[in-house]
TrEMBL record:
Organism: Arenibacter troitsensis
Sorted UniProt keywords: Calcium
A Pfam cross-reference name: Glyco_hydro_92N
GO molecular function annotation: carbohydrate binding; peptide-N4-(N-acetyl-beta-glucosaminyl)asparagine amidase activity
Subunit architecture: Monomer.
Calcium in keyword set: yes
Domain Glycosyl hydrolase family: 259-717
GO cellular component: cytosol
Cofactor: Ca(2+)
Name of the featured protein: Alpha-1,2-mannosidase, putative
Biological process annotations from GO: carbohydrate metabolic process; glycoprotein catabolic process
Length: 727
């Protein structure tokens, strides 16, 4: 079954494929697709820049309910528990137990690990739903067995967060909340934000207590029932027989303890650990089997289904059975909500993939963004879980417009246009007074920094606003996307203005250097040719105007010169697959009349140079599923280059057969992709047929896929200049 191929350990090392490269930033979490809370073994104290689990670590510090989406974003509202025998040890490094990966099993629906010395081994197991988890700890015989609870873990306070726990030995229950948000310094104050938790045990406490520690040794209060602090928790103690199993349930909520209790009653009402394992497995199997693969190797299937698994983790569910807490107005509302959108990355491939694999979630995800706009005043750029002002474009615009163009419209369309239009038309407060550097702290949290210059000069000025070239390009991508909505809605004046602005990247093309270069406010070129870029340099963004490829070709002097520059980019090793801005570059040869080059590059970059069935298996940070979504599209044979359009550029399928289980107008249908004669040598397309009709161009539309049934490729060993006759 498809679920059995998933290896959640792929992408978990902190190290990358080579020196200077990032690890995948993933974790072996357990839970249902798009789970509100991830349950994971904790190998270190997580923080911004460090995940709770890194494959290189050799000890376990806890079993955690976490909300950290990726390595460069913060956790919030978390809690952890840790089994122990012998002398009570409370702090993470003191209580840590050694383990090896030989004693570890990781699946989407189940995780287990054996920890500690041979004579005192403890086995920890995890099963989970969306908002609740159940841990099963198998203890050795001991008169001193413990479970330590850590309710909050602040070592360096940026804000005065204090968590709270309360022990009820009669109910065998610990309740509490954690108000910490690691990214809180970037966003608004949220007085009502709390990660509520209820922890229940199936074993009576013989002894218990609370502890409190902030940069000091723990202050232990034996038989203490309540505790407040910045680094604190509780513990319970009992005797265990050999191989005695102790179960622990954790319910989480952002609304209240009562809501956490309701979540638990709905998701894990009893103590049947194996039932939770099996139910979550069935859910994953259903979602993963929406794409079936035939003819791939076992390793390829593991890479593919792990990638598909990674595309079904974020944005995370944030509502709780008809209600949600909003970190944008600090209130509880009725409705459905999602959060942790890595929009700078995921607008490229993740969200377009969800149109096929998770169509029932697309409109609710858009609706969630619109709720954030209503409650906070702006669409978010990277909510974690509230505004952070991280990254440069406002790519919620592209996500909303792309869904709109493809027919996902089960939300307030006028409100959607109002929200994206505000991003395009209104600069942030005091725009010209701020440089808008990465993670700058301030009192205004979102929008397009530097938009004033973009409108008045036709580009963002490098001596006024940081990352100016990237901003100019990305504002254009978003303007183009919004323009497609405007045109369809009959707002032709807006359409004209937006389309005009979308060409502004051309004002940064420097004929002398042949690159997009930064310009000063006075119009002069910035002397630093590498100035103005986000996570990259001048090669990274040279072909970044994914919304105006014909315009870029013209700028370079025609298709041949454009293709020559593309070749220089790839041949000179300037392409960095581990970073998202260039993810569409391999497909640009289609537009330049050389589709066989695209086919070569897709074969190369879907290979083990970037993706492996190994913990060190993703070349760069997965960024909440974007790197994985690129792979899924890459091996299927088509890719969404330009948001706000229905057009997909054809690459080349890498497996002999795919079957997509789709929903059209609410009814199930299948779409099959077949690659005849595909082999290691036969990487080139000789012809493509859609339902028996030859495609004359290396492009296919969303409508064609949704209306079609069979996409059939004939593959061969030689490049074909006639595979697409009208190219």
């Amino acid at each position: 079954m498809e679920v059995d191929y998933v290896n959640p350990l792929i992408g978990t090392p902190s190290s990358g494929f080579m020196e200077g490269r990032d690890g995948g930033g993933t974790m072996p979490c357990v839970g249902t697709p798009f789970a509100m809370t991830n349950f994971v073994a904790q190998t270190r104290e997580n923080k911004i820049s460090e995940m709770p689990y890194f494959y290189e670590d050799s000890t376990i510090q806890g079993f955690m309910a976490t909300h950290q989406p990726t390595v460069w974003m913060g956790d919030y509202g978390y809690v952890s528990v840790m089994p122990q025998v012998g002398k009570l040890k409370l702090l993470p490094k003191d209580r840590a137990l050694s383990f090896t990966h030989n004693d570890e099993i990781s699946k989407p629906n189940y995780y287990s690990v054996s920890m500690g010395d041979k004579s005192q081994k403890i086995k920890g197991e995890i099963a989970a739903t969306s908002r609740c988890g159940i841990f099963q700890f198998t203890f050795p015989k001991s008169d001193e067995s413990h479970i330590i609870i850590q309710g909050i873990n602040i070592t360096e306070n940026k804000k005065a967060f204090h968590g709270h726990i309360k022990i009820d030995e009669n109910k065998r229950e610990i309740t509490g909340y954690n108000p910490e948000r690691m990214s809180s310094h970037l966003g608004p104050e949220l007085k009502n934000f709390k990660g509520y938790f209820i922890i229940q045990f199936d074993k009576s406490f013989e002894r218990f207590g609370t502890w409190n520690s902030f940069r000091t040794e723990p202050d232990i209060i034996k038989m203490g029932k309540e505790q407040t602090g910045a680094r604190m928790g509780g513990y319970i103690s009992f005797k265990t027989e050999k191989n005695e199993k102790v179960k622990v349930k954790i319910a989480t909520s952002f609304i209240s303890l009562d809501q956490a209790r309701e979540n638990l009653s709905k998701e894990i009402p009893d103590w049947d650990f194996n039932k939770v394992v099996e139910n979550t497995r069935k859910i994953w199997q259903d979602k993963l089997s929406r794409i079936t693969v035939n003819g791939a190797t076992e390793d390829q299937k593991s890479i593919f289904y792990t990638a598909l698994f990674h595309t079904m983790l974020f944005p995370r569910e944030f509502s709780e059975y008809g209600r949600y807490y909003s970190p944008f107005d600090d209130k509880v509302h009725e409705g459905v909500s999602y959060n942790d959108y890595s929009l700078w990355d995921t607008f490229r491939a993740l969200h377009p993939l969800l149109h096929f694999t998770q169509p029932e979630r697309v409109s609710p995800m858009i609706q969630s963004l619109l709720q954030m706009y209503q409650e906070g005043g702006w669409l978010p750029k990277w909510p974690n879980p509230t505004y952070t002002n991280i990254m440069t474009g406002t790519h919620a615009d592209a996500v909303i417009a792309d869904a709109y163009v493809k027919g996902f419209r089960d939300y307030d369309l006028d409100l959607a246009y109002e929200a994206v239009r505000k991003n395009a038309m209104h600069p942030p407060y005091r725009d010209t007074e701020k440089p808008w550097g990465d993670r700058d702290e301030g009192t205004l949290y979102e929008a397009r920094g530097g938009l004033t210059y973009y409108h008045s000069l036709g580009y963002v000025a490098s001596d006024k606003t940081r990352e100016s070239v990237t901003r100019t390009i990305e504002f254009g991508i978003d303007d183009y996307s919004i323009a497609q909505m405007a045109k369809d809605m009959g707002k032709m004046e807006d359409y004209g203005r937006l389309m005009g602005w979308s060409k502004s990247y051309k004002n940064l093309y420097n004929k002398e250097t042949g690159f997009l270069n930064a310009r000063l406010f006075n119009g002069d070129w910035d002397k630093n040719e590498q100035e103005g870029f986000t996570e990259g340099g001048r090669w990274t963004y040279l072909f970044g105007a994914m919304h105006d490829i014909e315009g870029s070709i013209e700028l370079f002097g025609g298709k041949e010169k454009f293709a020559a520059k593309l070749n220089e980019n790839f041949d000179g090793q300037h392409y960095r697959h581990d970073n998202e801005p260039g993810h569409h570059y391999a497909y640009l040869f289609n537009y330049a009349g050389q589709p066989w080059k695209t086919q070569e590059l897709i074969r190369k970059h879907t290979s083990t140079i970037n993706y492996r069935n190994h913990p060190l298996g993703i070349n760069g940070n997965d960024d909440c599923g974007q790197m994985s979504a690129w792979y899924v599209f890459g091996v299927m044979g088509f890719y969404p280059v330009t948001p706000g359009t229905e057009i997909f550029a054809i690459g080349a399928p890498q497996f002999p057969e795919f079957t997509l289980r789709l929903l059209k107008d609410g009814a199930p249908k299948s779409f099959k992709i077949i690659a005849n004669k595909l082999s290691e040598e036969n990487m080139y397309i000789q012809s493509v047929k859609l339902d028996g009709k030859i495609l004359n161009q290396p492009f296919i539309t969303y409508t064609q896929i949704m209306n079609g049934h069979l996409l059939e490729f004939e593959m061969g060993k030689n490049p074909s200049s006639t595979a697409f006759k009208n190219n």
